[in-house]
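Session log. Operator J.P. requested a structure for one protein chain; no other inputs attached. Running the standard single-chain path with token output.
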Amino acid sequence: MSMENYRRLAAKMDTHMQQLATQGINDAHVILDRMMGYVPDLQKIWVATTDPQLMALSKEFPSFYRYAVIMEEAFEAERKKASRPYDGMQQFAEPHKQMMDSILTNAATLERGYQALLEGLEPIQIHSQINELDRLHHQWLADLESFKNSLKEDVTAANALDYVDSGLARMAERIAELAKLSAEL
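Structure written below.
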């Protein structure tokens, strides 16, 4: 990936963090929950950029930096726990990792899209945007169900389903609520 691609990803996270701040959401736990869809993008930036590149992105996008710090602190706190509900679970097979990455990325896209509608586009754009987002939302729900079924069928991943499902359920609820609010426009 090029630095321009990293800038684009960081800009998206920065924008969403600013939206959350505008809504008065400052609690780190809520931010982590709301920004879960950005984890794959943050991971890409975190592992692929050099320290100077990461510093440049952090300076250019201060809300991105805040999100990265919140994630780093959460990761460190989680690492220090004596035990976690997922201890002993096997890692997902590569196909499941790819499916999860896609689900998280598409969830973030849906949240950003619906949020943009709620923040006010021109009336002529709203109808076509809602239709497209609703189409993507239905596809996301189908992909989510397919992912869950795939985990159920994979004996090694079945024990992870309950753990993963709780996080995905919260994400699905948020997206459904945003879709409902957008439909009222």
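Operator note: The chain has nine helices and no strands.
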